[in-house]
Each structure stands twice: as structure tokens, then as C-alpha cells.
């Protein structure tokens, strides 16, 4: 798939900012993804992200690092951070911004060591793609955790985007979970192929987490149906 977002990040980093990438899903119209927001400082981040960064402990794996803003902040605090992304452009930008350890890789292909904190932000559950694939991702994340490790991950409940019935329920697709979306990104006349991206409501995420051997707790809730969760290994015996 074309590295459209990576090209946009590189353009912005090199001072060639002329337009924002556009995103579109199968349930929403085109919307701009402001490039300056992807290069934000800690002070410019929403409270939910700040809460996640403040909760990070030990060695950190930043999954889907984008332009590296989270990794850079943690590294500047003196923490050891490994940042990964599937986008070659994102990895290059993150390196150029000064993050010491960055790697271009898919999460499922990454197996270098274990971490005290695994960070997945900006709808971290999106990387799971679909409900059916979520257990494989959760099991792989578990293999990357140190015994006392934690996964800090955010998502949103998209129920608000669907029509409501007279009884108070929502009209959702019959053939899929309502948080399973298809995304496309376009930038400077180029458009990506559609790719799956998953939003999980709290109850379903907790169910999937518990089924895969995790404890699940909510650390924070945002103002737009979003939330930050912490996952820890359920069978770890704490002294």
C-alpha cells in the first residue's frame, strides 16, 4: 500500500506543508487530518493522552508511533523507548526528530524483547483491524509484556454515529460489528486502498481482554465517547 501518510509527515517535517491528508470511512464523509496535530507537544495533547503518558513505566514500546510525538516526550523524560510503525515515512520522521530506537515493522512481526509498558494511542484498537483478528493481537501483545507489564490503549464507542430507534437502541449493520470500519487516506492526488480499522466499545473490549487472559480497567474517559484502558496479565501472581 502506498505510504501516503508517511509522505505527508515527511513533507511537514521538511517545511513543505501545503495541505492536510483527508480521511474517509464507510460510515462518514471526508475529513481533514491536520498535520500539525501529529507533531504536537505534551502541552497540546488532550488529557486522555497526557494521562497515558504519565502512566508509562519502565521500558516502553510505542506501537504505531506516527510522527513520534509520544515516544519523543517519554525519551526526553529519560525513559527507554522503542517506537514502531508500518509507515516508512513515519519511521524516518520519528528518527529525524531524535527518537533513538525506531523500527519499521508490523506489530505481529515484532518480537524483540519484552516491555514494562506497551503504548497504543490515537485509537490504539484500530491496529487490531477486526473483531476476529483481535485475539491474535492480544496474545502477541501479551508475549511482549514483562511479568508486571501493562498495555495502555485507547478507543471510542462509535454508537453515537448511528441512528437511534424509538426504543433508544441504535440501527447497526447486520453483517458486522458497528465499530469495524474501512478507512481510506488521500493526499496530493493519491489515495490509499481501503484498510480495516477497529473501534471497540468498553464492554466488548473488556470481554475480549478477559477471554485472552487480561485484567481490564478504565483509567480515563474523554469528552468524545473515547476512553483509555489499562490491560495487565490476569494470571500473574503479585507479591
Question: How does the SSE layout of this entry go?
Answer:
Elements: H1 4-13, E1 22-25, E2 28-32, H2 35-38, H3 47-54, E3 60-63, H4 69-76, E4 81-85, H5 88-96, E5 101-104, E6 115-120, H6 134-143, E7 145-156, E8 180-187, E9 190-191, E10 195-198, H7 202-211, E11 214-221, E12 226-233
Parallel strand pairs: 3-4, 3-6, 4-5, 6-7
Antiparallel strand pairs: 1-2, 1-8, 7-12, 8-9, 8-10, 11-12
Helix pairs in contact: 1-5
Key traits:
seven-stranded mixed β-sheet; single chain; alpha/beta; 239 residues; five-stranded antiparallel β-sheet; 25% helix
Choose one word for the global shape. globular
Q: How many strand elements?
A: 12
What is the succession of H and E elements? HEEHHEHEHEEHEEEEHEE
Q: Whole-number average pLDDT?
A: 94
Instruction: Characterize the biggest β-sheet.
Output: 7 strands, mixed
Q: Which consecutive residue ranges, at least 5 long each, have pLDDT under 50?
A: none
Lateral arrangement of strands in the main beta sheet: 5-4-3-6-7-12-11
